[in-house]
Write a structure and sequence with these properties.
The structure holds two protein chains of two kinds. Chain A contains eleven helices and two strands, in the order H-H-H-H-H-E-E-H-H-H-H-H-H. Chain A is mainly alpha-helical. Chain A has a two-stranded antiparallel sheet with strand order 1-2. In chain A, strand 1 and strand 2 form a beta hairpin. In chain A, helix 8 crosses helix 10. Chain A is flat. The termini of chain A are far apart. By secondary structure, chain B is of the alpha/beta class. In chain B, helix 4 crosses helix 5 and helix 10 packs parallel to helix 11. The chains are: A mainly alpha, B alpha/beta. At the A-B interface, helix 8 and helix 10 of A face strand 6 and helix 3 of B.
């Protein structure tokens, strides 16, 4: 696989890697919500600058990060075109009763910017946080719901397993695609109308192997005494350190500054 | 088909933090009808090399030429050549997807654009080669076959394309001794009948001793040795450097030689070693 996919974890020792997963998840959520509540240019410049600073801090090669945006290229184009034609305002160009407006151009650009920010922030979260930590964080955040009788621990376990198997499934797809291409299947090349049915010989073996893996995993977990109803303890416990506190304050300050700017700009 | 590998290098996930170089500066030439074994410890780049030869990966540097055409090129000409390279991955049974055995085998031939009669003939022929009864298998669901049968079915699916070049990646992994013996014999018979180019990837020296006349040793993505199987597989220092032991017959002959018997030490198979010992024994009248 030549590109770093969103959801992949890159082990490292940067301050961002060492941060408590709960802090990182909270901060990510804030960074993803802010561009929607704060539409003004200055606050978004500040926000974008902050995200770029985080990206540099995470030590993930920036080019690799930029390339992850490839996964949303089609969504981005669709959203841009949609906004371009549906926003009322000063017409720039009219073709057959549908007009492209200046405001539409701006709104489309804003959509793309928000989408990019969403992908970059969530990628940064998974690059710097291992799946196990992430699930642990989710479990800790949802802990209060466990008292209401909701299966929070089981949910966290399901999440851990799902995250753990994302790269495995990608590898598996890659392997099966190659095996079927070696048998002359048109999957990554050839005309589109031949490519789509070409995926059947990929997905059938993929599901077969996913079920086999699931069965093996279930057996292995039971052999090691896993019972879903049992209270389990963690090998590593989450502790908030001074760094986590500082990071939380920083991100809250950013939020406050942006809201203040928005308020002043009316 | 002539396979030329020139200055071949491959890096997984280049320019990301997960980048890993699997091959560097590999030069090889494989002629039609050769039986080449590719040997190397885990992670030495064997499987990567095989996939590059089959045109399934794009080289990071250098190239693989099939009769002078780049193996991975996106042209019709290159695709035609790629289809002449049959590739059986490790655990080829994991690629089975059809609902019946004959349809599974027919997938490749159909992709070649053959007519129904020809496809049917090839299915029967390929099942027969791997030792599955075409009549008995006519309605069987592939997933109900035993592990060994599924392996053979997957191989039939590749053989049915009649590739002049066949690459086998760890063909005997997970097979019981009888299944292994049978598979090797069938592959060898077929190779001899059709002047097939056979490329076998393995870290099982015994498989290579049986299948290969030439062995390429890969260590850390580079060619550490390339020569006749008898030479490479009996070179103790070379193999030990790559964390392999010499095959048992060679070990026996070398031990005999050390205790004063004038035996040749480059006999890779038990039968060959026995013949060698018997000859030396009778020529010396049993005296050292």
């Amino acid at each position: 696989m030549s590109l770093l996919l969103p959801g992949m974890h890159v082990a490292g020792g940067t301050p961002l890697h060492r941060l408590d997963p709960r802090v990182k998840m909270g901060a990510s959520l804030l960074l993803m919500v802010l561009p929607f509540v704060a539409p003004s240019l200055p606050s978004n410049l500040l926000l974008a600058g902050f995200v770029v600073a985080l990206a540099i801090l995470s030590a993930v090669p920036l080019m690799a990060l930029v390339r992850t945006l490839r996964v949303v290229v089609w969504t981005g184009i669709f959203m841009f075109v949609f906004r371009l034609f549906t926003t009322p305002g000063t017409p720039l160009l009219t073709v057959g009763g549908i007009s492209v407006t200046l405001q539409g151009l701006g709104a489309g650009a804003v959509q793309i910017y928000r989408l990019c920010l969403l992908v970059v922030v969530s990628s940064l979260l998974t690059y710097t946080t291992s799946p196990a930590q992430l699930a642990h964080g989710v479990e800790a955040v949802l802990e209060p719901l466990a008292r209401l009788g909701l299966p929070v621990r089981e949910f966290a376990m399901v999440l851990t397993i799902a995250l753990r198997f994302v790269p495995t499934l990608f590898e598996e797809i890659e392997k099966i695609v190659k095996a079927q291409e070696a048998r002359g299947a048109l999957i990554r090349t050839g005309p589109l109308w031949k490519r789509v049915p070409g995926w059947v010989p990929v997905f059938v073996p993929l599901f077969v192997s996913a079920f086999r893996r699931a069965e093996d995993l279930a057996t292995a977990m039971e052999a090691r005494g896993f019972r879903s109803a049992h209270q389990r303890t963690h090998l590593y416990r989450l502790h908030l350190t001074r760094h986590d506190l500082a990071a939380s304050l920083l991100i809250l300050a950013l939020g406050a500054v942006i809201l203040f700017v928005e308020w002043r700009m009316g | 088909m002539l396979i030329s590998v020139e200055g071949l290098g491959y890096t997984y996930a280049p320019s990301t933090p997960l980048a890993r170089t699997a091959l560097r500066g590999v030069d090889l030439e494989i002629r039609q009808g050769e039986r080449v074994g590719i040997l190397g410890p885990t992670g030495s780049g064997k499987s990567t090399l095989a996939q590059l030869i089959a045109g399934l990966l794009r080289p990071t540097s250098g190239h693989v030429l099939l009769d002078g055409v780049a193996a991975h090129a996106r042209t019709a000409d290159a695709r035609l050549r790629r289809l002449k390279v049959g590739m059986a991955f490790q655990y080829p049974e994991h690629q089975i997807f059809e609902q019946t055995v004959p349809r599974e085998v027919a997938f490749g031939p159909r992709n070649l654009g053959l007519n129904d009669a020809e496809v049917e003939a090839r299915v029967a022929w390929a099942l027969d080669i791997v030792g599955l009864d075409p009549v008995e298998m006519a309605d069987r669901v592939p997933l109900t076959l035993s592990g060994g049968e599924m392996r053979r079915l997957a191989l039939a699916g590749i053989l049915a394309m009649r590739p002049p070049v066949l690459i086998l990646d760890e063909p005997t992994a997970n097979l019981d001794p009888r299944g292994r013996q049978e598979l090797l014999t069938r592959v060898l018979t077929w190779q001899a009948e059709t002047e097939l180019t056979l490329i076998v990837i393995s870290h099982n020296l015994d498989d290579l001793a049986r299948l290969a006349e030439r062995v390429v040793l890969l260590v850390a993505g580079q060619v550490a040795a390339d020569g006749p199987a008898r030479e490479v597989l009996s070179d103790r220092p070379l193999l030990e450097d790559a964390s392999f032991d010499v095959p048992p017959p060679v070990a026996l002959l070398q031990a005999l030689r050390q205790s004063g018997w004038a035996v040749a030490t480059n006999r890779l198979l038990a039968e060959e070693a026995a013949t060698e010992i018997a000859q030396v024994w009778s020529s010396t009248g049993g005296m050292v």
